[in-house]
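ok, trying the design again with the full structure, not the truncated one.
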């Protein structure tokens, strides 16, 4: 990373950690009224509408081969994870979801090494193993923190982290000729119509808005989620990827769990020994995997 980019990269890292760390509690608020598929679709639709003006003004920058790449980036980096996280949090505290999201750098390293031929250091193997051990601890940690039966919903977040890691590398190495805002708005333009059609045509979203108490309040939380955590944060994140490295960019997950846990505790969630053990193990794994 160039010296002139370091300060900007660190600032972006902090801002992203605050925004994304808040996203899990916003998902939780939306799920109080809406089904997980409705939360995911509303999140993507709100982000796409927010970025629509930017997307339309940048269409002239796109070549034929960009459309398929942006669709794939949108699916991997936003669309699929939005539904996976919403589904997972129907049976998981928001703070635990935030902790599990720290697996993203592990997947970034693995995919970068095996597919994009980045150098794979021996110490990284230990980091990867520790990261997945931490994830397993969290998957078996119950609400009180003690270990129990497997929470299958945690696997949804693991899969989402895999998509995040794949998208990080994909943008860095396959969409090198477009600016961050063009990538973000273009990707949202590709996936937005799918989310909107599903939300208004195949779900009970509009019916709940008209009949369920606090539906508009829950809708507001998800719209904020879509605009800030999806649209704005994705733009900032793509900018961070452009001026740094995929591994550095994905290290936003070092700070983000602290924010997520803070919101969870403020909302009455409890964390036990198992949760903290899992978080520390994953963090140690991510550190070793990124250690020069």
């Amino acid at each position: 990373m160039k010296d002139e980019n370091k300060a900007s990269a660190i600032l972006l890292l902090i801002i992203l950690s605050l925004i994304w760390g808040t996203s899990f509690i916003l998902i939780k608020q939306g799920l109080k009224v809406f089904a997980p598929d409705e939360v995911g679709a509303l999140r993507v639709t709100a982000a796409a509408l927010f970025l629509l003006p930017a997307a339309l003004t940048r269409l002239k920058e796109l070549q034929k081969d960009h459309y398929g790449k942006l669709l794939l980036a949108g699916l991997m980096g936003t669309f699929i994870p939005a539904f996976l996280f919403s589904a997972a949090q129907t049976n998981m505290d928001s703070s635990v979801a935030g902790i599990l999201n720290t697996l993203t750098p592990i997947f970034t390293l693995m995919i970068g090494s095996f597919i994009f031929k980045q150098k794979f250091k021996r110490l990284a193997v230990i980091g990867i193993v520790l990261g997945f051990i931490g994830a397993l601890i969290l998957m078996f940690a119950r609400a009180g923190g003690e270990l129990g039966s497997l929470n299958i919903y945690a696997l949804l977040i693991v899969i989402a982290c895999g998509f995040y890691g794949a998208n990080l590398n994909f943008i860095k190495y396959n969409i090198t000729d477009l600016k961050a805002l063009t990538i973000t708005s273009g990707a949202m333009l590709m996936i937005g119509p799918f989310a909107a059609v599903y939300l208004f045509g195949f779900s009970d979203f509009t019916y709940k808005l008209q009949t369920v108490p606090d539906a508009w309040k829950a809708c507001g939380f998800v719209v904020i989620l879509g605009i800030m955590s999806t649209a704005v944060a994705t733009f900032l994140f793509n900018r961070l990827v452009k001026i740094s490295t995929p591994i550095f960019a994905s290290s936003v997950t070092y700070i983000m769990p602290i924010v997520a846990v803070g919101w969870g505790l403020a909302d009455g969630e409890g964390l036990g020994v198992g949760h903290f053990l899992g978080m520390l193990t994953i963090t140690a794994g991510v550190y070793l995997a990124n250690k020069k």
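Keeping the full-length input from now on. DSSP finds 13 helices and no strands in the chain.
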